[in-house]
Design goal:
Length: 799
């Protein structure tokens, strides 16, 4: 009996801790009173009671007696943390301080405020943006022949280049006053998504001038003269930009570049002016071979003190016309047979006047900060749009192909093995799109969410990799044999480009997401670091006290929510989706506990423990992705047709969170801590499963149907209404196949062999009428065209 009362007491204590914020004094008195009652009534025996009083004394006395706390707790912790902090380079510091935090901080807090999520407005297009998508982008897509681009020309056609430039595709982020389109992040993303669904080469070509590059940097940091000189020309495509950061020795660690500019005097327009003499060697530069203006990142030095006492000025950015003496440009790389322009460039003793530095003299040495700030925006738009465009195209083609392609007398999409792959295609695509949309809403609110955009870049390009691979598997040989009618192979080949650029994925997952997230989004860490840095023991002591309270609350939430399977969490919605909100809140609390413990015990070591850090990234990333999926479903008015996709995406994402947390605990370096964390996070074990077979089955069938669910998947991609088109013929075959479904069903109900060779006889017997026979023949023809692959004469160039 007394054990039952004791358990009830612990439960009430945990529940109160979770729900009510009480002062330390009230807590101490309550716990002391409870211990007194337990001891007085001799419920737990003398030995255990003494042990509990000792634990109580050890925990509570230092909390109340500040001198003692400082001496025995705060000071040793202060010294330990100071020593264990890894050296942070200036570039890392600047990266950590750049951008804003929002929903990611809520997830980090352990107690997300759903109203903040719901208040993020839904994406909207202006009439002008809509019109551009329906006319200019539609026309551009119809002009793109990917086989011609990637195989025959290794370039876009001159007509396509001209169309892109003259219709303002290079000026989507440039304000109207400079002749640009001034599109929202959402519109910009819709444009890239649509083009990417047709040709990745064209999408990358359009993406680059609108992403991290000269226009973006000029808009944020350029002088008025620079803006006036360049922006209108960039908007009209009269200047073609590129941005050169990467060099042969400095890839991911771009800050270690050996491209050097030395302050000196030189001749410019007949006058002697101050500037830099720059030598550089860069590679992999997109649009580099055709650029007329080169954005260059270089390390600036002032050995002769012409600007002041500082000799090492730091990374700086300049805009250099490629016609300048000493600039060598024009050779090409071939990135996996994609035909967008990409190549190396170099400069020997190029004199660059001060006026060519982006932002002028004031921005010398601020190059790294400028780049990471703007990357926090750009990487949330371009590659996510490209990934979703590819995902939607694979969903459309694979759904249609699986329905029209028959083996063993059945559409291959009816086989469970194929359905498993198809459910990943549809589920991940819906999930990716929801994540893209939420991030764009934040960007359109003026946020620069550095951690979130790193998450979106990583998880969307990785999901695209999975989706395209699954699409290839379902297409079998149809996806492998290359030629004008293959709509998947180039996409498949190009996947690693998205994985590698704008922060290579391994590095982004294992170093950036949690590394930056823990510093930026944690409610106390940044302030604690500042207190450590400035040797401010008093502030550190106050922060540690609050931090301890925060940790205790989250431990209580994590245990209580885990034991109750999330049922004790209040959900902001009712109905089927409430469960997912509850699980998300539960994992947010568990994530906060595990990250606090890891940060406290491993400190600076965590930076080197990239496998742990990568799992933290997975947990945070999939919590964000799950929130985005739920938010979209609410924002769209809970459409019945999307329910299967939402459930699949939430189950998939929450399972990943669970497995990531489990992985962190399992591999935590200290055994005793492992057991504690298991007790706090998984007191009843791991109870979530990945999407069920039944859900996979439903989702795969929706992909093969022409219903509303499929419309959501296809929303925003280019869908030619032309049966002669490589993708249009597949859609046409699907439509006809579904039209003949009642006829085929009738034959099956009559137990008649529905094989093609019997149709003529069946018609003569009156089982099929002439119109039905005609339709069936038409379908077979359409299917044959849709499943055909290209072949080429032997020993000749494949043209
Ligand atoms: C097609 C293409 C277009 C590009 N366009 C441009 C452009 O326009 N402008 C420009 O400046 N650059 C551009 N880049 C360069 C691109 O940004 C770099 O390729 C990228 O930064 C990675 O550098 P790297 O290829 O040298 O790989 P490396 O830096 O050598 O990395 C190799 C591997 O190690 C991993 N890694 C490295 N450090 C760590 C770490 N600390 N922790 C964990 N993993 C780590 C990386 O994730 C990667 O998987 C382009 C590259 C390509 C391929």
């Amino acid at each position: 009996m007394q054990w039952f009362v004791l358990l009830a007491f612990v439960f009430v204590l945990l529940f109160t801790l979770v729900r009510v914020q009480l002062s330390l004094l009230v807590w101490t008195t309550t716990i002391a009173g409870a211990l007194f009652v337990i001891t007085a009534l001799d419920w737990i025996g003398g030995g255990l009671a003494i042990a509990l009083w000792l634990i109580f004394a050890v925990c509570m006395i230092p909390l109340h007696w500040s001198e003692m706390r400082k001496r025995w707790l705060t000071e040793p912790l202060f010294q330990h943390m100071k020593q264990s902090l890894p050296p942070i380079s200036n570039s890392e510091k600047e990266a950590m301080e750049s951008g804003t935090v929002g929903w990611d901080a809520e997830l980090f807090s352990g107690n997300p405020d759903w109203q903040k999520l719901f208040h993020i407005p839904k994406n909207k297009l202006t009439d002008e943006e809509k019109n551009f998508l329906d006319s200019d982008v539609e026309v551009l897509c119809s002009m793109l022949d990917d086989w011609d681009i990637t195989h025959k020309r290794n370039d876009l056609s001159p007509e396509v280049w001209e169309f892109i430039k003259s219709h303002g595709f290079f000026g989507m982020i440039i304000p109207k006053e400079y002749g640009g389109l001034d599109f929202s992040a959402y519109a910009h993303s819709q444009v890239v998504q649509k083009i990417a669904s047709r040709s990745l080469t064209a999408a990358v070509t359009v993406m680059v001038p609108n992403s991290l590059g000269p226009a973006e940097l000029l808009l944020s940091y350029g002088t008025d003269t620079q803006k006036k000189h360049y922006l209108s020309k960039l908007a009209k495509g009269e200047e073609i930009p590129c941005f050169a950061l990467t060099s042969p020795v400095a890839g991911s660690d771009a800050g270690a570049m050996t491209d050097v500019g030395v302050v000196c005097k030189g001749k410019y327009k007949g006058k002697e002016v101050l500037g830099f003499r720059i030598n550089w060697e860069k590679r992999y530069i997109t649009l580099g071979p055709v650029a007329t203006v080169l954005g260059l990142a270089f390390h600036a030095y002032d050995p002769d003190g012409l600007l002041g006492d500082t000799k090492d000025l730091g990374i700086s950015c300049a805009l250099i016309p490629t016609a300048t003496k000493g600039v060598k440009i024009g050779r090409r790389h071939y990135p996996l047979n994609a035909a967008f322009m990409n190549g190396p460039n170099s400069g020997k003793d190029v004199f660059v006047p001060m006026d060519w530095l982006i932002g002028g003299e004031a921005y010398i040495g601020k190059g790294w900060q400028m780049l990471v700030e703007r990357l926090a925006v750009g990487r949330g738009i371009s590659l996510p749009a490209l990934s979703v465009g590819a995902g939607k195209r694979v969903s459309q083609t694979t759904g249609a192909y699986a329905r029209v392609r028959k083996q063993f007398h059945l559409p291959v999409g009816k086989f469970e093995g194929v359905q498993e792959a198809m459910s990943r295609i549809g589920g991940l695509t819906y999930m990716m799109d929801s994540t893209r949309l939420l991030t764009l809403s934040m960007l359109d609110q003026g946020e620069r969410p550095a951690v979130i955009t790193a998450i979106v870049k990583y998880y969307l390009t990785e999901s695209m990799r999975q989706v395209v691979n699954d699409g290839m598997d379902v297409h079998g040989g149809r996806g492998i044999c290359m030629g004008p009618s293959n709509y998947l192979a180039r996409m498949y080949q190009t996947i690693p480009v998205g994985i590698t650029v704008e922060g290579a994925n391994i590095l982004t997952r294992s170093m950036i997401i949690f590394g930056q997230g823990s510093m930026r989004c944690h409610p106390f860490i940044q302030q604690e670091m500042a207190a450590l840095e400035s040797d401010d023991m008093a502030s550190f002591d106050a922060l540690i006290l609050q931090h301890a309270g925060h940790l205790m609350r989250n431990i209580a939430r994590s245990v209580l929510f885990s034991v109750s399977g999330g049922r004790l969490v209040s959900s902001p919605v009712s109905g089927d989706m409430a469960y997912y909100y509850q699980q998300l809140a539960r994992f947010s609390a568990s994530f906060a506990v595990v990250s606090d413990v890891a940060l406290m015990l491993l400190g600076g070591q965590l930076k080197r423990k990239e496998m742990l850090s990568g799992r933290f990234a997975d947990a945070l990333g999939y919590m964000y992705i799950c929130s985005a999926t739920l938010k979209r479903f609410e924002g769209d008015g809970q459409p019945e047709s999307d329910k299967v996709s939402v459930q699949w995406a939430c189950q998939y994402a929450l399972y990943q969170v669970q497995e990531a947390l489990h992985g962190i605990i399992r591999h935590f370096p200290m055994r005793i801590v492992r057991w504690k964390l298991y007790a706090w996070v998984f007191p009843l074990g791991r109870r979530l499963n990945p999407p069920s077979d039944a859900l996979n089955h439903q989702l795969a069938l929706q992909l093969q149907d022409l219903g509303d669910a499929r419309k959501t998947w296809l929303d925003g991609i280019y869908l030619p209404d032309d049966a002669k088109d490589v993708v249009g013929c597949l859609e046409y075959a699907l439509q006809l196949t579904l039209q003949t479904e009642p006829i085929m069903q009738r034959l099956r109900d009559l137990d008649i062999n529905d094989a093609q060779e019997n149709w003529q006889v069946l018609c003569e017997q009156g089982v099929l009428n002439k119109d039905e026979l005609k339709l069936l023949m038409q379908v077979e023809k359409a299917i044959r065209k849709a499943i055909d692959v290209d072949d080429f004469p032997q020993g000749r160039k494949r043209k």
